[in-house]
């Protein structure tokens, strides 16, 4: 057994190599890059999650919170890794699995980043958190902030999923709707922070610990597969935090001596907002924002991710790829999956299932490979994505005979 609850040692800049103190509140590096948490992995080597409670805190040695008493939890983590044999067979990927993040508190994987980010912020003395969001992250952070006794200031596009507004308001957040994109919401939050010194800017990758919460998806997938990593993992990529986190987790697990052969990581985007796919295809190190980004898969409508170079690095280092699909393709995949397997996924997750079809057709994906798709949220959070066109029958009427 390891002695320390957390083996966090310092923060590191993946761009310029700077080393920063992890015992005080930090944002980004002076060079503008996000910061990554580093651990004393030698001390964490004895980590043995089996037998611990089924939450992401089972990996506490490689999480930044220093003591169990500082953990702010709603029971997040250890979501199911579900086999999808019927759908897999239909699309020529028989060894297909889904990590279903629809089952975490708040209905999306954003709960992971919020649980770890809020816990660490509260532990370091932060009194309030402020962020722009495409909806789900704001909802999760507002709810976890409420549990931690922190205030929250949230700005989201008016087009963000309506339920996420209700989650923020119910949590007592100070919420603003913005007639624009998440990037516009971000600019408003930055300006507002000037007059709120006791709030921390917890925008995507502007604090180092959200990524630590999301990386636990990688740990869980490997643990749930008997310490076998999948051949290919598909991730719906907006800010890319989950993809960067899973890449980091795979690297850490390799260092910890948990067997993990290389997993090819795939960033999936929508045709209406494909900065990472464009950069990948052009062989560029960074992305360029599209002029008028739009997609029904709202969580991946991110025109210029701060961590774009880290996403592209993760794809290159794992020999992965980037794929874009149309809204029509992802909506069709969403319904097909629900009918085949009973799994009602969010449109972002559905984009990955649509991408699978393309990858099989192109031959990039072989039919004998083990594939895990990250479904990042519940379809229930998006009640308007499925067009419902069914008859209404009068109270004293009768249902038609079977066709
Ligand atoms: C359901 C869903 N999937 C995917 C994403 C994209 O997440 P990431 O920032 O990790 O790329 C989001 C972000 O809002 C989301 O809400
Ligand atoms: Zn730097």
Could you list some keywords that capture this structure?
alpha/beta, six-stranded mixed beta sheet, single chain, 403 residues, binds pyridoxal-5'-phosphate
Describe the model.
The longest helix is centred in the middle third of the chain and has 16 residues, at 241-256. The strands form 3 sheets. This protein has a 6-stranded mixed sheet, with helices on both faces. Strands 8-7-6-9 form a 4-stranded parallel sheet, sandwiched between helices. A 3-stranded antiparallel sheet has the order 2-1-3, with no helix packed on it. The chain has a domain at 81-107 and 210-385: Rossmann fold (3-Layer(aba) Sandwich), CATH 3.40.50.1100. The protein is 34% helix and 15% strand. It starts with 7 loop residues before the first strand and ends in a 28-residue tail after the last strand. The protein has helices at residues 41-44, 85-90, 110-123, 136-148, 162-170, 182-193, 210-224, 241-256, 275-282, 308-317, 327-341, 347-362, and strands spanning 8-12, 19-20, 36-39, 81-83, 96-100, 128-132, 151-157, 174-178, 199-201, 232-236, 264-270, 321-325, 371-375. The protein has 12 helices and 13 strands. It is α/β, with parallel strands linked by helices and 403 residues long. The radius of gyration is 21 Å and the shape is globular. Residues 108, 110, 134, 136-137, 204, 236-242, 299-300, 346, 348, 376-377 line the site of pyridoxal-5'-phosphate.
């Amino acid at each position: 057994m390891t002695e320390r609850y957390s083996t966090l040692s310092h923060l590191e800049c993946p761009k310029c190599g700077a080393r920063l103190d992890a015992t005080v509140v930090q944002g980004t590096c002076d060079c503008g890059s996000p910061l990554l948490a580093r651990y004393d992995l030698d001390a964490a080597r004895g980590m043995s999650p089996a037998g611990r409670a089924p939450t992401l805190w089972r990996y506490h040695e490689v999480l930044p919170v220093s003591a169990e008493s500082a953990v702010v939890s709603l029971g997040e983590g250890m979501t199911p890794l579900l086999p999808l044999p019927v759908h897999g067979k239909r699309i020529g990927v028989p060894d297909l699995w889904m990590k279903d993040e629809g089952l975490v508190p708040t209905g999306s994987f954003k709960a992971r980043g919020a649980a770890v980010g809020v816990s660490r912020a509260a532990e370091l003395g932060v009194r309030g958190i402020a962020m722009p969001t495409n909806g789900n992250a704001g909802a999760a952070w507002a709810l976890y902030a409420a549990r931690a006794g922190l205030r929250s200031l949230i700005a989201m596009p008016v087009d963000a999923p309506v339920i996420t507004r209700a989650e923020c308001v119910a949590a007592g957040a100070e919420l603003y709707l913005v007639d624009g994109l998440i990037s516009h919401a971000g600019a408003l939050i930055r300006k507002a922070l000037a007059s709120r010194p006791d709030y921390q800017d917890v925008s995507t990758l502007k604090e180092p610990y959200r990524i630590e919460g999301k990386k636990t998806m990688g740990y869980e997938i490997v643990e749930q597969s008997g310490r076998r990593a999948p051949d290919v993992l598909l991730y719906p990529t907006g800010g890319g935090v989950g993809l960067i986190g899973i890449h980091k987790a795979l690297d850490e697990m390799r260092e910890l001596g948990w067997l993990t052969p290389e997993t090819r990581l795939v960033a999936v985007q929508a045709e209406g907002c494909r900065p990472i796919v464009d950069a990948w295809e052009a062989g560029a190190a960074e992305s360029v924002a599209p002029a008028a980004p739009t997609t029904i898969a709202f969580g991946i409508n991110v025109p210029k991710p701060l961590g774009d170079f880290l996403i592209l690095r993760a794809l290159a280092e794992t020999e992965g790829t980037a794929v874009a699909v149309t809204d029509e393709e992802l909506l069709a995949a969403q319904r097909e999956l629900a009918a085949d397997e009973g799994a009602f996924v969010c449109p972002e997750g559905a984009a990955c299932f649509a991408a699978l079809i393309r990858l099989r057709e192109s031959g990039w994906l072989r039919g004998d490979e083990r594939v895990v798709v990250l479904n990042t949220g519940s379809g229930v959070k998006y009640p308007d994505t499925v067009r419902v066109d069914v008859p209404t029958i009068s109270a004293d009427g009768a249902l038609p005979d079977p066709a």
